[in-house]
Write a structure and sequence with these properties.
It is globular and about 65 Å long. It is an all-alpha fold. The longest helix is centred in the N-terminal third of the chain and has 41 residues, at 24-64. It has 15 helices and no strands. It folds into 2 domains: 36-66; 78-304, MetI-like fold. Helix 4 (78-108) packs antiparallel against helix 11 (215-242) and helix 13 packs antiparallel against helix 14. 76% of the residues lie in helices and 0% in strands.
Length: 309
């Protein structure tokens, strides 16, 4: 028998293994149509809320702050120029001290003793409690006349403490930065601690064999492995801090004499206290030249870098 005849006979004799095709028309018209209707019914309320409370305020705010005359008025205001300097100091000092302290303390909390775990629980409490009562409490503790800090200085050391929030711009701004670090450093410490814990112990053992201990182990093993995480956390912290207003608003209120405002609090002052919402939007939008590059760098870093811990 020829090969062609054999193949034809095998094809005719082989059982058909094809399965019946599903009845797609009935399924689409029945179950799928019902699920699609319910999906639309659930999505529409959320879409309406998003448009009403997110998209519309953003678009309207951008429309209010689009006129060039607002920025001419803003840039000629000495309070705004001082606010830009305050924002730069708040970001540069606050973010870097906070992240550097979190990096150091994450190494301290790597200890496995029971008291270290208890201390870590106490350490994260400032971050866990709500921000509003925290900063209001700091405001009253730093009161120059009968605050807790000055009373303690007098009772123990017989030192008459300064007016932390009332007399000096730099004392007030430093108090705001200290409050910010105290509030948010525990959060980033826990993030970096998780990064340290993800490093395999075998790498440390190999480094110990090569003689890398102490500072050398941190320099050649730990920091190179968490450097990407540290950079991403720093970028995120800068973006978050740029929009922070709780510290300044509740600790100093922008005082003394409007000297400690940052862009977020000055925008609130312009929009609500002096009744110029367009100027307030322009104040906040003036931070976009810094915000947009930070977001772009962060997105590129997350997309192109494989963060290996």
């Amino acid at each position: 028998m020829s090969s062609t005849t054999f193949e034809a006979a095998r094809t005719l004799s082989a059982p058909s293994l094809s399965l019946p095709r599903p009845r797609r028309r009935a399924w689409r018209g029945g179950l799928q149509g019902s699920e699609f209707t319910w999906a639309i019914a659930f999505v529409i309320p959320y879409a309406a809320v998003f448009v009403a409370f997110v998209a519309y305020p953003v678009v309207y705010g951008l429309w209010m702050g689009h006129e060039p005359r607002l920025y001419n008025e803003l840039f000629s205001d000495p309070i705004y120029l001082r606010t830009v300097v305050n924002t730069a100091i708040f970001l540069g000092v606050g973010v870097n001290l906070k992240m550097f302290g979190a990096l150091l303390l994450s190494g301290f909390f790597m200890r496995r003793s029971w008291w270290t775990k208890g201390l870590l629980l106490i350490y994260v409490l400032p971050w866990a409690v709500p921000a509003l009562p925290t900063f209001i409490s700091i405001h009253w503790m730093l009161n120059g006349q009968w605050g807790l800090v000055n009373n303690t200085l007098w009772d123990i050391f017989h030192i008459d403490g300064p007016g932390w929030l009332d007399t000096s711009r730099w004392l007030a701004l430093g108090s705001v930065i200290a409050a910010h670090i105290w509030k948010w450093m525990p959060f980033w410490t826990v993030i970096l601690l998780a990064g340290r814990m993800a490093i395999p112990q075998e790498l440390y053992d190999a480094a110990a064999v090569d003689g890398a201990t102490g500072l050398k182990r941190f320099t050649y093993v730990t920091f190179p492995l968490i450097a990407n995480l540290y950079l991403i956390c720093t970028l995120l912290s800068t973006i978050f801090t740029l929009g922070e207003f709780n510290e300044v608003y509740f600790v100093t209120g922008g005082g003394p004499a409007l000297s400690t405002h940052v862009l977020a609090t000055l925008g609130i002052r312009d929009a609500f206290q002096i009744g110029r919402p367009d100027l307030g939007v322009a104040t906040v939008m003036s931070a976009l030249p810094l915000m947009i590059p930070l977001v772009i760098i962060l997105m590129r870093k997350l997309r192109t870098t494989d963060v290996q811990l």
